[in-house]
Amino acid sequence: MIAPRWRTWHGPLVICAVAMAVLMSVSAVGLVVDGRTVMGEGVWLKPFKFAASFSLYALTLAWMISQVERWRRTLWWLGTVTVALFVLPEISAITFQAVRGVRSHFNFATTLDKSVFMVMGGAAYLGWALTLALGIFLVMQRRVDRAMAWAIPLGVAISLAGMSVGYLMTAPTPEQAQALAGGAKLITIGAHTVGAPDGGPGMPLLGWATGGGDLRVAHFVGLHALQVLPLIALWVRRVPLVLVAAFGYAGLTGLLVWQAQRGQALIHPDATTLLAAGALLAVVAAATAVLRRSPARSETPGQSTFAEPTQRRREPAEQY
Known about the structure:
Elements: H1 11-33, E1 37-38, E2 41-42, H2 45-66, H3 72-100, H4 111-139, H5 146-170, H6 174-181, E3 193-194, E4 213-214, H7 215-223, H8 225-236, H9 239-261, H10 271-293
Helix pairs in contact: 1-2, 2-3, 3-4, 4-5, 5-7, 5-8, 5-9, 7-9, 8-9, 9-10
Region (Disordered): 294-320
Transmembrane segments: 12-32, 44-63, 75-96, 116-140, 147-169, 217-236, 241-260, 272-291
Keywords: Membrane, Transmembrane, Transmembrane helix
């Protein structure tokens, strides 16, 4: 008898998602009862946001891995390594610094702070590589759902681009680079705000800067293409519409990077940004309208994302 589908989900990733949900709850309580702040934000806001993001990331990968027919053993181990060497070190470092009441990112104030940030940086690089590897093996599956066959690789590609935005934040700002060139020893290297110092006024809950550009916006939006595009594919069931959605999503991510690097807050776009956003929206809307009026070919609605053989054979070593 084939086990219920939910029982085939990747165990370590599911446990990771549950643990992140618990951390979200703890962090939410911390935001209420702990009045300490770091850079103008409650010390527990960053663990809360990262736990939420990692929970979605882990659940998405657990679902994707549960659907595969090929490379199951490889994907299972890649998922486990992702939890052990990416998610856990990253969230542990962030939570550790929150408990201490100090900044986790870009913090070079002490040897300990520098070491913690180096751990986070190494985990982020490894997470990027592991997500790429998982994406490659997921793309190599046999699928009956052609829309999903496009949504998964495009979602992985845009998500990797969103992850890469994080590396822009680790580079020294012009002022920091000048100080370093002069031999100064800095306690902060890197920033997520452009055109204003980190720690200025920000949006409620999200904390994104309102006094300058914030690279975290594009980082967040791009990262979650991994969830958004497969959901769109499940909804529209048509390859052309998925391609239009991917184009629009990638365009939005690029637009947000461009806006932030020009020192503009998300909620204070200038005329040029609004014009570019309007053009992107017009192209996506026009393409969607044309495609929705055109005859739809069957995209095998209602079938599994991945190919389902009549009788599934599992090797004993692959019963995870």
